[in-house]
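Supplementary Note 3. Input sequence used for the single-chain structure prediction.
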Amino acid sequence: MREWIPISTSPKGRLALAAVRAFGSRPFDEVTVADLAREAEVTTGALYHHFDSKLGLYDFVRADVERRLLDRVEGAAAAVDRSGDRLGAALAVGFDFAVDSGFARILAEAPTDAASGDALAFAFGRLCNPDSSELGALIAAAWRTAVARVADGDDRGAMRLALLRLATA
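The predicted structure, written as discrete structure tokens, is reproduced below.
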């Protein structure tokens, strides 16, 4: 369970909300500490006080956004009958969530904490028949590529269709 839920009126909460918007729409390297502080209407010192660094803030919001994604992916898979296409449903629902919510950039990136593993790859791997961590990693990489390409301006429908084709391959 998460120890803290951002409250938008607190400096920490405003930083988290600003970071979700910034990192969701722009690559990590293009977002500056000054951008984040200005958007949150706090000083840069507040960012360092609450999160130690830009990477600390990024990791915080990425974990939150990824948890939201995983909830949807797992829910979509659970809603499909065992004989149905659980992987396809999970890919499509996760893709739509990432693109529609404005989280495309942040979710297109692989996790920065290699020690904790790739939860999305694990989730997709569990939906393969039989379970396959290797295939899950490949599918997660393809999913992230599709999300990134839409963030870069590629056709959303074509990327979504490619993911669904991948699920049935």
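The mean pLDDT is 89. Residues 54-79 form the longest helix (26 residues).
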